[in-house]
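quick one, two chains, predict together pls
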Amino acid sequence: MSKYSTTTLSLNFARPLETYVREGLVQDLLVSWERLPARIVVRKLEGGLRDEGIPIEAYVAVARTLLRSGADGDGWRVIELLAQRTTGRTLRHLAVWGLVGTRHQEDLAREITRVTIECVISTSARDEFWECRFWTCFDRRARTILRDFRCGRTDEASWDEWTEIEGREPIVRTHRASSIDWTDSLAARSALARLPEPMRTAFYLKHYADYKEESRTAEPTIASTLRVSGRSVRKYLRRAEQLLDEWRAEETDHD
Amino acid sequence: MTDPAQADMIVALFSDALERSVDTAGPPWTGVMPRKEAELLRDWSARYPDLRTDFAAVAVDHWANAVVGGQRPVLGEDVPTDHAWIADQVERVRRATSEPSQAPIPDHQPPATDHSYAPAGLRTAALSRGIGFPDELAARLRLPPVMLERLAGRQFDPASVPVVLIQQLAALLQAQRQDIAQWLAGPAAMGYAGMPAAMVSESRAQYGTALRFSDAVTERADWDDADRGYWQSVLRFSRLSEEMGGLGDDEL
């Protein structure tokens, strides 16, 4: 903490954005801080970290204002606070993509953090929206990083490889998952929600949104949505069914 | 192709639309994806094909959260949640960006202005680019044709026209948004575009007949429900003109 300087400057935290308008709560908060010394505002943000009572968009606005004003020490302190608030969400994304506990976990968490910080310190108009809907922006970047990681490092065949659960061989299916009414119980739907990506999205689009696997027309399909071939889609669906069957079998054993 | 600068906002609008659809379609624990929700996903995916992956991800997250309350597989002990790790990551980026951070970060670069666009009117501009007027252009902008004609007739208070609409017009008409904004702020025609119009020279404040875009979105009966919802959502984010009192170059 001591490496960060503090400033007694009062800054225009509530400066209007070029293209967008902040949410009222955030804007009101920033307006109320305009007469305060920056160090007091930073303290408030530190307090907000504990109870999460301060919208994260306020962190972005304050960090940008501080950096714009040359108050680098305080600006980077706020960015560190913001990064702490994103850690849990980063891990949630990693979990959704089945990457927690893998050797890639730290690299990917670092990459998500890096991209987030770069967007937060950006002065580009295209990054203004981070001050309006931080988590929407964050989620898009995190998903893109994880999707690119999967697609970039694998060919279609190896998609199956990473979906194997470590130390466990897929069991032989005793029935087709498509014969199950996945809407009939909370347990079944909870199992679906636990599927790793991209199987989860593929299964959801197929069974809940009634998407075709692929099509020659321009209609949205699972393949076009996931930006993969129809063959990959069928693999995802098969793998999803396998996992769901395994989980059902485990549940049956426990019963 | 969606303007990358707007992609985050559009995804946020879709997320909002999804939230609203659940409110009207019934509780999520009914199991089957509400029909309205599925329609939204298809509709938005068709409208912004390059964002369909984002829309699907938002929809699936939304659904999964509704089903299991955001629960995820248990995280491992080796998860890097400690503050030292985070401070190290921040320091890495700080070092990497130390050059620009030494000096105050400059404000946004002023957009390049292309003065080649001489707005002869929305109708002329649209037709010269092969876009039918008013129906085709109105459909692309998700406006009722009558509303577009009023816009073309500069019947609206320019400060009430959402920046998003100006951006969309600029993109479709291959014009600079400043030029569109300046044109909209010009003298209003007394009749609709394309009709012989008596021009007035007073400002709208003086003659007081200007319409407000938000009022038209709310009050006009000839809107498609989805389009009305879209613009209502946009207005939530782009109340720039109301907040900043005009659509001059500085605001854009």
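Chain A touches chain B through 70 residues (CB under 8 Å).
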